From TrEMBL:
Transmembrane segments: none annotated. It comes from viral metagenome. Pfam families: N6_N4_Mtase, ParB_N. InterPro entries: Chromosome_partition/occlusion, DNA_methylase_N4/N6, ParB/Sulfiredoxin_sf, ParB_N, RM_Methyltransferase, SAM-dependent_MTases_sf. This is Putative methyltransferase. Keywords: Methyltransferase, Transferase. The keyword Methyltransferase applies. Residues 9-96 form the ParB-like N-terminal domain. One of its GO terms (biological process) is methylation.
Amino acid sequence: MTINVGKVAMIPTISIEIGERARQNLGNLEELEKSMKTSGLIQPLAVQEVNKNHFKLLAGERRYSVLLANGVSEIPVRIYPSDLSEIEMKIIEKAENFYRKDMEYWEYDNLVHEIHEMEQAIHGTANRGGAAGSGHKLKDTAEMFGITDASVSTAIKRAEAREVAPELFENCKTQSDANKVLKKIDETIIKQSIAEKAEREKSPNSNFAKLASCFICGDFFEGVKKIPDGVMHLVEIDPPYAIDLNKRKKSDGESFYQQSDYNEVDVQEYQKFLANTFQECYRVMADHSWLICWFAPEPWFEVVYQELNTAGFNTTRMVGIWPKPSAQSMQPQVRLANTYEMFFYAWKGQPALNKAGRGNEFRFPPIPPQQKTHPTERPVELMTEIYSTFAFPGSRVFIPFLGSGVGLVAAHRLNMSAIGFELSKNYRDSFLVKIHNGVEYLR
């Protein structure tokens, strides 16, 4: 990319207009005035040539104000051409402000956020698996200003939170104060507000809008009644396990996803619940189609197997396996720790595998607990591999219990169309925030 350095010239001070400025509080100009009277104007101001003898200030408003107040009639400037894009103009202005020591913390956060978005508007967003250097990433913004990726990410989060709930930050004087507020803010409220804002502002034809429309808040047993018979090519069921998940799951990262929103099924009703679920799924599935069902082998292996057969499916006890690097056990003194999850795969009619001959082990690392938005969230790479094993591009995928919504993303990556239901609006909001923030996640 060519670096535009402009041309340096002396121009009349009155020929410069300020226009809209990023810096909303110029701060104390007395110290700057003393410094300029001692050392002079060390670097030129940045302006854009609007027309002959008419310029727009891009960067250096504080210095310009001091020069104007002291009656300086001509000043040195770096002149940029009139065809400079609006985004490029703002980047020149905003980038200079990062080097000002007296910038308010919230101005800093807003500018980090805006610069990052503007650079993405110019260079595109980074695509997962794309060519090296393609698209603009957090790392690129960090390198621009000599800060860490984490600092960029945190500044963006503060800016978004302040935009959603500015009254909560009224008494914050520093970044540290704002960080303390962030920790106290109910994550659900923030996610809900960001999700709603993202839905309002995204184009109806964007990937975000399409995926959002596929994540339906509602009860599966009510919603499935509206789906015609024989239209789905792949059904992926991750039902409640009736094993009191809240007690069995590690608490690591609990503040990052709402375990209290997880809807468990009573043990006494579980077999009936499975029977009704499988019957409805069988109805909406096309001839020669596949069903995936995750389950807790202890104590439900035989129950799930029997109910699949009762509903009309064919299946096998040679289940699919997702091995994990770490293990869990409720009784480590007497029970070996479990290092894998299992799923039945069942079929209606005589479908063919997309990946004929593939093994039944799907080895992908799990999501770190602190990054989960749902207690049973699985990595999108795992779900993409499973979907592509059983179904072909263009397939229609049905997910009765969406949870984190990762199945929608997996189907999107594979050019499949998917739809599903989830009772909790909190999980939908978390899903929308994740796809809003993660273009790389969508690939």
